[in-house]
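Worked example 2:
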Amino acid sequence: MGETTGGTPGAPVRLGLALGGGGARGLAHIGVVRAILRAGIPIHVLTGTSMGAIVAVAFALGDPERSGVLQKLEEGALRTPLAVAPGERETLMSRLRRLVAAERILTSNVLGWGSPLLGDVMPLLNQLTRGLRLEDAPIRVGVVATDLETGERVVLTEGNAALAAMASAALPMVFPPVRIGKRLLVDGGFVELVPVQAARELGADVVVAVDVSVEKAAASVKSGLEALIRAAAICSRHHTDAILEQADLILRPRFSVPIDTLDFDKSRQAIEAGLRAGREALPAVIDLVRRRAALTRRSRT
């Protein structure tokens, strides 16, 4: 696609993807990005919030397929100790194990910042980002986080990529906050669940937003942690709708099975849903880029 736009003659139309938060559902972003890149459509800007930040950083810094980390994610590397592993039979011992894990999580969060519910994710992020910084990416990449002390929206575009992704995904009661400089950062979903505005700020001419948040009532809420996550999602829904109005195209992957925020054992289904959504959107994405290029050409004449 050789379409051009912008203030510089011959400059390409800058396509941006805004990848939203949504826990395990956010793994659908892997499929969306794969579909667009495999179709030969260049992506010039990637922004992400929470799980969207992890995927955005991974693809912006190169080919994450080669690292093997994406395969680990597909195989459930982020599975929580509260979940039943695929093929595991529900037994009295498995119930007791999850009960003990839940008690430890609650106690650690009440008495301190807590320990990561999903295990130690930083080694996984370090492997995914290969120790690189956000500014090392060949395309513009930014991740959104929330300053817990000031309430400000923060768009990270520089610094350690793994730490930035961790900050954007640091959901309270799941992960401890991340200190970067003078800021104490937590999940960016509280301020910009789908980072459309961030993509515009980084120079995207056309913004495709990928929204994997829950729109309807959850099928079931089984614990206080899930209740907290669900309540946060409800609070951000109205704000997110206003943000999405700024996007040129909104993709909402359709999942073949219900996937809750912590259902990382359903990674494959989430990625497949994103791949389907990305493929279905290809004609619309190409049309948007071409129309933007044509509009720019007319404005010059």
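Residues 5-9, 96-103 have pLDDT under 50 and may be disordered. Residues 267-300 form the longest helix (34 residues).
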